[in-house]
């Protein structure tokens, strides 16, 4: 890792509906976190532990986001726990925005965050009177449903039809009878036909809980089963709406789905112009400094 390690490296730990992240402030873009380093930081036994890592860097200071600097001061450099890069992380962007406000780097209210999937507009509510952190709402942009028909998701010898939904990152959404049908999800579900997801895919298993109310489990590309996935919840809500015969672009009315995940609840609203908004909690739970000797021993 190329980093200023002499005095250790500050980090924080945060989560959104128990999708948890190592947060590394790097405002001036001085860190070069390779995949092996990210994987060690996200390791739950040999590192800090997290489903992913959020590097907090000024857009102007990172070549991946410099073109967005005029629209968003801060860039969420998101990595999966295996060190791979993903285009977007919905829970991550809520936690990221919450961190910016808590650290005094942004004011509560509306703010823009640059991501690899483009700029996302976020609203961070102030804390409630009892100190409970306010909810964070993200405009996740439009869901794309590129097809093709006939996509399948399989676990062991069970196979389900699935819907291809892109929320900036790829998802396969399968409606099942029971969330237990997905098994232990220690390994990635298979998808067919071959070639639909050349860069891998996040797979959601969904059951109905009531009118416009679903529950899901997810196996995330690059992180395994997680207790929540924001882009996944958006993909599920849009797939559920279409299955229910609802398309806000046709009805002219917004539709809202409640999505229960093992780690909490997210509310997803889709608008007639195609925008999808996600609302849910975000929390910072700890902050500290990485040991300089440990840091120095990390892989390049
Ligand atoms: N947990 C995230 C999604 C993170 C990225 C995903 N694993 C991928 O590789 O696309 C979320 O909350 O959206």
Automatic annotation (TrEMBL):
PROSITE patterns: DAP_EPIMERASE. Pfam families: DAP_epimerase. Homodimer. Its EC number is 5.1.1.7. Keywords: Amino-acid biosynthesis, Cytoplasm, Isomerase, Lysine biosynthesis. The record marks 171, 220 as: Could be important to modulate the pK values of the two catalytic cysteine residues. Belongs to the diaminopimelate epimerase family. The keyword Iron does not apply. Transmembrane segments: none annotated. The active site is at residues 89, 229. HAMAP family: DAP_epimerase (MF_00197). It is found in: Cytoplasm. It catalyses: (2S,6S)-2,6-diaminopimelate = meso-2,6-diaminopimelate. It is an enzyme of class 5 (isomerase). It comes from Kitasatospora arboriphila. Pathway: Amino-acid biosynthesis; L-lysine biosynthesis via DAP pathway; DL-2,6-diaminopimelate from LL-2,6-diaminopimelate: step 1/1. InterPro entries: DAP_epimerase_AS, DAP_epimerase_DapF. The lineage of its organism: Bacteria, Bacillati, Actinomycetota, Actinomycetes, Kitasatosporales. This is Diaminopimelate epimerase. It comes from the Bacteria. Substrate binds at residues 19, 80, 90-91, 169, 202, 220-221, 230-231. Catalyzes the stereoinversion of LL-2,6-diaminopimelate (L,L-DAP) to meso-diaminopimelate (meso-DAP), a precursor of L-lysine and an essential component of the bacterial peptidoglycan. Its main location: cytoplasm.
């Amino acid at each position: 890792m190329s980093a200023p390690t002499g005095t250790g490296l500050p980090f924080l730990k945060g989560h959104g509906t128990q999708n948890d992240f190592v947060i590394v402030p790097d405002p001036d873009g001085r860190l070069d976190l390779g995949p092996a380093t990210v994987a060690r930081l996200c390791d739950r036994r040999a590192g800090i532990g997290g489903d992913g890592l959020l590097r907090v860097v000024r857009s102007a200071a990172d070549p991946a986001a410099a073109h967005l600097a005029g629209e968003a001061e801060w860039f969420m450099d998101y990595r999966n726990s295996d060190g791979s890069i993903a285009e977007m992380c919905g829970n991550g962007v809520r936690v990221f925005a919450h961190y910016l406000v808590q650290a005094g780097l942004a004011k509560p209210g509306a703010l823009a965050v640059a991501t690899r999937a483009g700029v996302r507009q976020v609203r961070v509510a102030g804390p409630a009177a009892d100190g409970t952190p306010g909810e964070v709402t993200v405009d996740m942009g439009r869901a794309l449903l590129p097809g093709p028909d006939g996509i399948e998701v399989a676990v062991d010898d069970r196979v389900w039809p699935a819907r291809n939904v892109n929320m900036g990152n790829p998802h396969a959404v399968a409606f099942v009878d029971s969330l237990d049908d997905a098994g232990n999800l220690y390994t990635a579900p298979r998808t067919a036909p071959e070639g639909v997801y050349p860069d891998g895919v996040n797979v959601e298993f969904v059951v109905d809980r009531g009118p416009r109310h679903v529950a899901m489990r997810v196996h995330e590309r690059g992180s395994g089963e997680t207790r929540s996935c924001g882009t996944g919840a958006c993909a599920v809500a849009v797939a559920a709406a279409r299955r229910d015969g609802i398309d806000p672009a046709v009805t002219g009315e917004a539709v809202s789905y409640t999505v229960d995940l093992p780690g909490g609840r997210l509310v997803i609203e889709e608008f007639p112009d195609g925008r999808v908004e996600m609302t849910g909690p975000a929390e910072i739970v700890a902050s500290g400094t990485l040991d300089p000797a440990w840091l120095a021993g990390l892989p390049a």
